[in-house]
Design goal:
It is built from 4 helices and 25 strands. With 377 residues, it is α/β, with parallel strands linked by helices. The strands form 4 sheets. Strands 2-3-5-7-9-11-12-13-14-16-18-20-22-24 form a 14-stranded mixed sheet, covered by helices on one side. A 6-stranded parallel sheet has the order 15-17-19-21-23-25, with no helix packed on it.
Length: 377
């Protein structure tokens, strides 16, 4: 839900409309509707836009003193009609725009006129079936706080990744999952650290990135969410990840990580989600867990983690998912795990655990338990 935070905040601040919609802006919105192809039986917003009502009352439209500042056309079954001549690019006061979860049929590139929307702070074009090169116009939206172009068929060559982000110094959330970037660690990491000092959310899954992860990334002190799944790092996880004081989520599954995972990352007080799965050569062991840790999801499946489960795992009172499938753990299952009352999912199959199974009767939320292929009695 993080990618929508700014848009929702805008709605909450400007939700009360004190002035009627400017007539020219209402005309532009109606022109936009008429030029878009959308499924009227599935639309919940566009289909209701009409001349008889003030446009500031239309669903998906947010106004401030009669000016249209927000447009949310998420999941409106739009399938075409957006090009450089669109009236959309005449809505000069737009601050928030979402065209996410529509279907431009992978036959439409992102229009090059986006730089006309100079006031945009939130832009979400995710899962909209755009294709081709990301235009240089996006790099000119210098007020952007959130940029989401993920899950399309996009690539970065000219401009490349460095050029795209070098002027976006206000950016706090960057989502480019699935965008073909194809850059080594010393390029993409240094581009991020030199251009985006306020970055909190970094999501670059399936971007054809390679490693090692450069030490320059440690300069992004505000990082909270790191999602780098499905890349080709062929390198260890850096120890400096444990220095991110606001880290809540670290996901790097299937990214060819190796070496020993830093135990200190498990102990970051704010960490809620850790997913290291399907990194066959990644080794490590579990540390002693502090009291009242924040960890909710711990997924190590398909790694080479080994050793025993510490009894201090019972300190993770809000842990809801443990997945240790096909690791190399040994020893007994600590009785303290039976006190994890929020636990919903437990998979420790295909290890070398032995001894008795704790009584999980206190775990009222537990829906999935997999213990097979161990030495349990």
């Amino acid at each position: 839900m993080a990618i929508y935070s700014l848009f929702l905040m805008t709605i909450s601040v400007f939700g009360v409309v004190s002035s009627p919609c400017f007539r020219n802006e209402q005309s532009l919105l109606l022109q936009l509707k008429n030029n878009l192809t959308f499924n009227s039986t599935m639309s919940t917003k566009l289909v209701k836009w009409n001349q008889s009502a003030d446009c500031c009352s239309w669903e998906g439209v947010t106004c401030n003193e009669g000016r249209v500042i927000g447009l949310d056309l998420t999941n409106e079954s739009i399938s075409g009609g957006l090009d450089n001549s669109s009236s959309l690019f005449s809505l000069q006061h737009l601050e928030s725009l979402s065209l996410a979860y529509n279907d431009f049929n992978y036959s439409h590139e992102i229009p090059s006129e986006f730089d006309k929307l100079a006031n945009l702070s939130y832009l979400n074009l995710s899962s909209a079936c755009f294709t081709g090169q990301i235009p240089i116009a996006i790099s000119r939206l210098t007020r952007l706080v959130t940029l989401d172009l993920s899950f399309n068929d996009l690539h970065l060559e000219n401009p490349n990744f460095k050029v795209l982000i070098q002027n976006l110094s206000e950016l706090m959330e960057l989502h480019l999952d699935g965008v073909l970037i194809s850059a080594p660690g010393n390029e993409w990491c240094r581009a991020l650290s030199s251009s985006l000092p306020n970055l909190r959310v970094l999501s670059l899954s399936s971007c054809n990135l390679s490693g090692p992860i450069d030490s320059s990334l440690r300069n992004l002190h505000s990082l909270s969410i790191i999602c780098l799944n499905d890349n080709y790092f062929s390198a260890p996880v850096p120890e400096f990840f444990a220095d991110f004081k606001n880290l809540t989520s670290l996901e790097v599954f299937g990214s060819e990580l190796n070496g020993k995972f830093p135990e200190k990352i498990f102990q970051v007080p704010t960490l809620q989600t850790l997913d290291l799965s399907y990194n066959d050569d990644l080794q490590g062991s579990l540390p002693e867990f502090p009291l009242n840790g924040s960890l909710q999801t711990m997924v190590l499946r398909g790694t080479s983690f080994s050793g025993t489960l510490p009894s201090s795992i019972g300190n993770l009172k809000i842990l809801s998912k443990i997945d240790l499938w096909r690791c190399n753990f040994v020893g007994s299952i600590p009785d303290s795990m039976a006190s994890l009352t929020q636990l919903k999912y437990l998979d420790i199959s295909y290890n070398k655990f032995s001894g008795s199974i704790p009584n999980f009767s206190m775990c009222k939320n537990l829906t999935t338990v997999r213990l097979c292929n161990n030495y349990l009695s």
